[in-house]
Amino acid sequence: MPRSPFPVRPLLLGLGMVALGLSLAACSPAAAPDALNRVISTRGLKVIPDQRYGPHERNLLDVYAPASAQGAPTVLFVHGGSWQGGDKAIYRFVGESLARAGYVTGVMNYRLAPQNRYPTYVQDTAAALRWLRDHAGDFGGNPNNLFVVGHSAGAFNAVEAVDNARWLREAGVPVGAVRGVIGIAGPYAYDFRQDSSRVAFPEGSTPDEVMPDRHVRRDAPPHLLLVAANDTTVGPQNALKLEAALKAAGVPVTRTVLPRVNHVTIVAALARPLTFLGGTRQQVIDFIEAHRLK
After folding, report:
1. Is residue 3 part of a domain?
2. Does residue 193 carry a pLDDT above 60?
3. How many domains does the chain have?
4. Using CA atoms, how far apart are residues 163 and 32, in angstroms rounded to an integer?
5. Which of the residues 26, 107, 122, 133 has an alpha carbon 20 to 30 A from that of 54?
6. Domain that residue 87 falls in
7. pTM to 2 decimals?
8. Is residue 233 part of a domain?
9. Comparing 38 with 47, which gets the higher pLDDT?
10. What is the DSSP string of 47-94?
11. Ramachandran bin of 110, using left for φ above 0, alpha for ψ from -120 to 50, beta for the remaining angles
């Protein structure tokens, strides 16, 4: 794990409270982790907010890019929130963190349930990926060096958008342009019908019709599945079942269980001043570096 550029020890207590605040924000779109965003500086980066990738009011993404990027990997981040909440503004720390690592990064919003049910938010993910690919060169990114990262519901969106051949095809994204998928604590394989998240799926639908582990294509790119050891929101069987489906299709996959972290702190650990929470950031960077076009 790289040393944080922030004075970590004096901030431990305060940043622990930030992590708690982030957990509340992940559950409630009205909450915002202002404390975390205040300690994140984007000085020296190119930040281009509210880029429109589609017609809906939530079809917007923010771009974070190194000032001197040239041919850099391009990363799309998809937030969580049980498909019913969340906002790209909460994840400014992700854009900053990945841009500091040298990647052109888009942090997106998507249409929310229950007004918008599956596959709407998956289609939005594919459309945002298309926009990012089309415009990557404007920010110093390589349009054929794409990665998709998602947390929780956003991990579902990321995996489904890439692994189900339908969505990239409909969005006009060449399947070979996506070099890898990183799912962080994603619900890829569960029966939603008795769960509060059922409002995100069509009435009368079944897991076979909507779950990403049922839709894996054989030419999908490598996957990294990060699991929180202390996750009480998304069960470990989700990653286990997706891993099995990917292996059955011959798709390279690494499933890593990160100690100490829970469903929220696993994504909070993407923030540079919160790497003491867990190894998420280094895992993501290592995966991208291993699979990027050189």
Report:
1. no
2. yes
3. 1
4. 32
5. 26
6. 8-291
7. 0.91
8. yes
9. 47
10. EEEEEE-SSSTT-EEEEEEETT-SSEEEEEEE--STTT---GGGGHHH
11. beta
